[in-house]
Inverse folding.
């Protein structure tokens, strides 16, 4: 009877085979085709632990430590391991509110219940000390050592810059940075980020389902070792920097000093400034908003690189050199000064009272406006009255070769280019061939559209000190070891004026201090060459400007000082520059009375 | 006049070798699944792999004992064995101990036994005994009703122990019944039932009843529209409606919450990866991360570090998939298929109907375990905790499967003498 159902043997056999084939197809899909399971598996068991290297230290030119690291601690949490505990005690030790505690725990839970996340970052050593003894009471919490930047001197904040957590846009751009990594945000910290940060290491640990450490992954084969950041040697003289900041106290402005022979920046003062220790750790955000909100002092604004001023009469030195180079004057060319230079339309560029007629040297010594209007007019009319455009461009190219009107390429971020107007600008403003030398005559005395930054002004002074060239200014002279700076930075950038023309201008600048407009900058034992300037300020009192270098032969320091709203150049800027030169060349300031007077001057109007 | 032979005389070595291969493969996978670096010896009796070694040794002893028993014993004492185990199953309901929600364990000294595992073997014997009766009318519905009662009885007792997985396995006998003459419609109904059942949970019951009614009307007009047909269609329709409501009731009132969640996850109603869906998801991750060649013996991470639950028992296939990869998994599946086909082939060559039916029962029971267990780890079946034959950790299931198979091997060795 049952033989009737023999075919059913094959149906059952078919069912077995069919099931087996379904399983094999399914296995093929999840084991061979799908990629996501291996990723999920790694997410399950692998924990990537970042090894943060110590950030490089920063020294000044004399080996004094400027920036170092101090231990800080991130409180980490693994939400699902958190057990009932004394929350109020925990909050008290951490200095947070219970509400904040709940909020952060919810956030951490949202991120992952079994992966660690930062609960509270950058706990300082004092708080950590109190916490450490009681950590055993708080299951699910642990501390991860991090470092905080610390500054030996409350100085050079703008130049040193600060670090902060990498923003989402940085993380999106660079694969190196992950959330809660630190990155240099301004100053040296930003421009030397790669050198300072070193390289993060990564340890891969295997964990079980309870997040217990089960050892290293593949005997550490895929682990990477962290490389410590490289130390930097700055060219800054921290004593000079501190003196500069003290002299500029309660004043707006800037002091930039450069060693002419090397381009090394000796100080970079921007005032008002702030204590760099304010922008560290957990207090950073609070202080940052306070500093940004200060609209009177604008302490975060780095004037040395970002403020632009008309150079005023300091510009006459360059115009004299261009005049000599273009052959429109010689050292002995004399012009009389009838108290001003008439523009022919009833307007006069006024000059102050001085003896005359003056030769070139004396024109610098006494800063004669008439002399420079005539020099500038001659430059722009060299090829005839109607060739203004051509001659203007010749003049402009000379000026640009002094490192003006463009970013000079300092090794710091956020440098501005200033402005040396082009003929195209005037063509647009007045119309093609509708402007002549007298139209733009204010350029002769450094007023009008010409704008320079303090660092450009110092660099221009360097060109004169070097009699014809500059080396791109830089604040770092050693990476990894002192004086190891890249040789290409030492390349000499020659200006378009022949070295032979400089002597007469330098002699004139010497007389400025000896018997000219800035006798208050005189230093008995050192020959200082200088030029005063006054930048017209349509918004208030004029800015006091002073450029100088010393000694006259084989100069060691070139300096620009700008004091906003301080009136004419010799009033504040000249004595300050003189004190800075004294400090740098003598190692101390003997004229303490002058120093006190400068330091105590308050030129900031509320 | 039967001559006495040695116990290995004429035994089917193909089945024996497949059995040994699966058991050993199971052992090393249990070792890998619960591998503890501080207890590296596979013979360490404090670990599951050490214990499994003891279970295997005992199983081999049981196999030899089974091979030594008079082959006629099983057919002659089928009813006695069956009754005995029914008695034990009833006993378990009263004196058994609860282990993870089920009261299915009997403790004899320090050894815990799961009588449900052995009940399958007893039922296989009694079903074979019943279907091999000379005067059985295979055309009569009553014959199959009686046969069904034979399997429902132990199944219900096991269900009372809240061990749904083991109870479900008794459905395997439907395949046996089908092979020996039960109407194919029953098989179709068995396929239709889960489909309607899932729909009952997924869609509005009134809409589903509407669909069933439309189907009934359509079906009635397809027939000769006699009163008899109307009655049949009506009975089937009402039965379906009753089934829809009972499924709903069973899922929402009888099943335990974790089982209900598992069903909801399986039919796609919920997808809670941290709750009930966690098991299946972790199982898929473990198997999927094995890729083509696997991570290598003892190099699996998902099972070793306990991401997969029950990794040595119900989810042992995850370790296979993770460490041995696609190739290893295929080899295992093919080994099982060869074993099933071999059992069927050997069953078909029996002269005794008792042996034929018993052989089919063995193949069907092993197949059901295989299909439900691996289907579960691959996310194709609901999470029903039943062991993978010969591989999963555990003494009871290994011993029960061993006896089940070796009774068949024993009888096959004497197929020429047994009629
Ligand atoms: Zn004059």
């Amino acid at each position: 009877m049952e033989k009737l159902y023999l075919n059913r043997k094959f149906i059952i056999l078919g069912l077995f085979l069919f099931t087996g084939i379904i399983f094999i197809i399914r296995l093929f899909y999840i084991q061979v085709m799908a990629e996501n399971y291996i990723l999920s598996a790694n997410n399950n068991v692998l924990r990537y632990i970042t090894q943060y290297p110590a950030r490089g230290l920063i020294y000044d030119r004399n080996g004094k430590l400027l920036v170092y690291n101090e231990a800080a601690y991130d409180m980490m949490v693994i939400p699902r391991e958190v057990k009932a505990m004394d929350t109020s005690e925990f909050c008290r030790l951490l200095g947070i509110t219970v509400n904040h505690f709940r909020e952060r725990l919810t956030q951490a839970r949202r991120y992952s219940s079994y992966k660690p996340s930062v609960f509270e970052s950058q706990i300082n050593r004092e708080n950590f000390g109190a916490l450490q003894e009681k950590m055993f009471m708080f299951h699910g919490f642990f501390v991860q050592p991090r470092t905080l930047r610390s500054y030996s001197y409350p100085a050079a904040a703008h130049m040193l810059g600060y670090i902060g957590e990498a923003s989402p846009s940085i993380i999106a751009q660079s694969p190196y940075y992950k959330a809660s990594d630190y990155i240099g945000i301004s100053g040296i910290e930003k421009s030397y980020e790669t050198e300072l940060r070193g390289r993060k290491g990564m340890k891969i640990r295997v964990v079980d389902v309870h997040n217990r450490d089960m050892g290293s992954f593949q005997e550490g084969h895929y682990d990477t070792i962290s490389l410590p950041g490289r130390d930097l040697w700055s060219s800054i003289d921290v004593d000079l920097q501190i003196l500069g900041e003290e002299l500029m106290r309660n004043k707006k402005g800037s002091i930039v000093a450069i060693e002419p022979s090397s381009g090394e920046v000796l100080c970079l003062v921007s005032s008002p400034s702030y204590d760099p220790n304010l922008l560290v750790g957990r207090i950073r955000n609070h202080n940052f908003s306070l500093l940004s909100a200060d609209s009177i002092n604008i302490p975060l604004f780095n004037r040395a690189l970002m403020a632009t001023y008309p150079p005023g009469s300091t510009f006459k030195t360059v115009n004299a050199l261009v005049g000599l180079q273009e052959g429109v004057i010689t050292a002995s060319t004399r012009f009389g000064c009838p108290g001003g230079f008439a523009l022919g339309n009833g307007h006069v560029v006024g000059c102050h009272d001085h003896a005359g007629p003056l030769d070139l040297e004396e024109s610098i010594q006494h800063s004669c406006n008439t002399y420079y209007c005539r020099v500038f007019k001659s430059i722009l009319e060299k090829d005839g009255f109607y060739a203004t455009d051509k001659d203007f461009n010749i003049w402009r190219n000379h000026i640009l070769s002094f490192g003006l009107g463009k970013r000079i390429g300092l090794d710091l971020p956020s440098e501005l280019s200033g402005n040396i107007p082009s003929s195209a600008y005037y063509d647009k403003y007045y119309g093609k061939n509708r402007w002549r030398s007298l139209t733009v005559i204010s350029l002769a005395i450094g007023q009008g559209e010409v704008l320079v930054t303090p660092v450009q002004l110092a660099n221009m002074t360097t060109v004169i000190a070097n009699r014809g060239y500059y080396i791109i200014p830089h604040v770092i002279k050693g990476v990894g070891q002192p004086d190891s700076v890249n040789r290409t930075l030492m390349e000499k950038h020659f200006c378009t004026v022949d070295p032979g023309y400089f002597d007469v201008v330098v002699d004139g600048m010497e007389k400025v201090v000896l018997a000219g407009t800035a006798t208050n900058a005189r230093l008995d034992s050192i020959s200082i060459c200088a030029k005063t300037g006054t930048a017209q300020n349509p918004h208030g009192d004029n800015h006091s400007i002073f450029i100088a270098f010393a000694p006259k032969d084989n100069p060691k320091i070139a300096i620009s000082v700008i004091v906003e709203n301080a009136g004419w150049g010799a009033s504040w800027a000249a004595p300050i520059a003189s004190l800075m030169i004294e400090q740098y060349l003598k190692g101390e300031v003997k004229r303490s009375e002058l120093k006190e007077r400068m330091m105590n001057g308050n030129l900031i109007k509320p | 006049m039967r001559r006495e032979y040695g116990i290995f005389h004429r035994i089917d070595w193909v089945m024996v070798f497949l059995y040994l291969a699966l058991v050993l493969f199971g052992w090393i996978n249990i070792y890998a699944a619960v591998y503890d670096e501080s207890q590296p010896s596979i013979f360490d009796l404090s670990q599951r792999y050490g214990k499994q070694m003891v279970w295997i040794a005992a199983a081999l002893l049981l196999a030899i004992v089974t091979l030594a028993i008079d082959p006629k014993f099983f057919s002659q004492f089928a009813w006695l064995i069956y009754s005995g185990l029914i008695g034990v199953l009833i006993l378990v309901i009263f004196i058994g101990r609860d282990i993870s929600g089920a009261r299915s364990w009997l403790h004899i000294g320090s050894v815990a036994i799961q009588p449900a595992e052995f009940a399958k073997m007893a039922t296989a014997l009694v079903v074979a005994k019943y279907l091999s009766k000379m005067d059985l009318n295979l055309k009569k519905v009553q014959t199959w009703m009686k046969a069904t009662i034979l399997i429902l009885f132990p199944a219900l007792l096991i269900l009372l122990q809240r061990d749904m997985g083991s109870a479900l396995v008794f459905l395997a006998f439907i395949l046996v019944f089908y092979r020996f003459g039960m109407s194919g419609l029953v098989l179709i109904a068995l396929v239709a039932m889960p489909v309607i059942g899932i729909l009952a949970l997924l869609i509005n019951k009134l809409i589903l009843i509407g669909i069933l009614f439309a189907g009934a009307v359509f079906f009635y007009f397809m027939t000769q529209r006699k009163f008899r047909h109307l009655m049949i269609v009506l009975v089937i329709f009402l039965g379906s409606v009753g089934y829809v409501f009972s499924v709903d009731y069973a899922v929402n009132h009888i099943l335990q919450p974790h089982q209900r969640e598992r069903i909801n996850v399986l039919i796609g109603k919920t997808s809670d990866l941290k709750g009930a869906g966690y098991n299946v998801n972790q199982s898929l991750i473990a198997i999927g991360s094995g890729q083509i060649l696997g991570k290598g013996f003892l190099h699996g991470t998902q099972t070793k570090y306990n991401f997969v639950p029950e990794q040595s028992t119900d989810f042992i296939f995850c370790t296979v998939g993770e460490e041995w990869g696609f190739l290893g998994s295929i080899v295992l599946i093919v080994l099982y298929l060869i074993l099933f086909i071999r059992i069927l082939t050997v069953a078909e060559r029996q002269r005794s109907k008792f042996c034929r039916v018993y052989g089919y029962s063995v193949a069907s029971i092993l197949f059901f375990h295989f299909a439900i267990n691996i289907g579960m780890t691959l996310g194709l079946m609901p999470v029903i905790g039943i062991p993978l034959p010969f591989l999963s950790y555990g003494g009871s299931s290994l011993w029960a499967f061993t006896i089940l198979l070796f009774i068949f091997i024993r009888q096959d060795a004497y197929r020429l003498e047994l009629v």
